[in-house]
Amino acid sequence: MKNLEKNDIVGVAALLVHAAKIDEIYSNDEKSLIKKFIKSYLKNDMEENILKEAEEIEKNSNQLLNFTNIIKKNDEETKSDIIKHLWEIIISDKTIDQYEANLMRRICGLIYFSDKMSAEIKLKILNSR
Prior knowledge:
The protein is mainly alpha-helical. The chain has helices at about 5-20, 30-40, 45-60, 65-70, 75-90, 100-110, 115-125.
């Protein structure tokens, strides 16, 4: 695990930004969670720069596939970690709307990650709050 290249991290961070913005509220809490993801993969202080780069990519892209292809080529442990970060962002505002739930189903389908495992991760996060 933890085998993402910098460009992959930027791409996944862009997907996290997309998940954060899908409910049209992009909070500082969500930004902090994205920075936490970046920091967990990069051991330097570049999370602010990478977040800005990811926000720019997300703003100029309407194609989820670009981001999910990065995740798809990784092992289950890395996929699971990324799904966990996605759920943390979605759950951070204490509601999961239909667009967020739909996004997670689509992402899981695109990266070949089971809905059951995604639901278990979501429940674990909900139960830890």
